[in-house]
Specification:
Layout: H1 2-18, H2 23-51, E1 53-64, E2 67-71, E3 78-82, E4 85-96, H3 99-130
Antiparallel strand pairs: 1-4, 2-3
């Protein structure tokens, strides 16, 4: 019963926190999503060119051995037992890139940005009109 109550509170807290943005903030976020995505890809491609390689990041699991203790219900003896847990670490690996291809991407992203900024500004204007403060 106690675990169920805790999980209900956790679910409620997650629902409340996910709804913290105002409708205007959500509208502006939606309006700028594609622009932010292209800007992020541009920064990534420029970083790859500057380094000469891309970086692949992944979470890798590993097991940590632990000893837990249990009290025997009848004898009240404290008994040890193995209780390994899984933890994660972040591993980064360099990945070879085609610098010419990365430069082509950078040029393409830079060409897309003015139009995306114009579209985002127009949509932000609509959001401001729809949700005045």
């Amino acid at each position: 019963m106690n675990k169920r109550l805790i999980s209900c509170f956790a679910a409620l807290a997650a629902a409340v926190l996910s709804g913290c943005a105002t409708p205007k903030q959500r509208c502006i976020s939606d309006a700028t999503r594609q622009l932010r995505s292209v800007e992020s890809a541009l920064v990534t491609a420029q970083g790859n060119i500057a380094r000469g390689y891309a970086v692949h990041t992944q979470r890798v699991p590993y097991t940590v051995g632990r000893v837990c203790y249990h009290t025997h219900p009848r004898t009240h003896a404290v008994l040890p037992y193995s209780c390994p847990i899984t933890q994660y670490r972040t591993q980064t690996t360099p990945v070879a890139i085609n610098v010419a291809e990365e430069r082509r991407k950078v040029a393409e992203y830079q060409q897309m940005l003015p139009q995306l900024r114009q579209q985002a500004n127009a949509r932000i204007g609509q959001c401001n009109a729809q949700f005045p403060e």
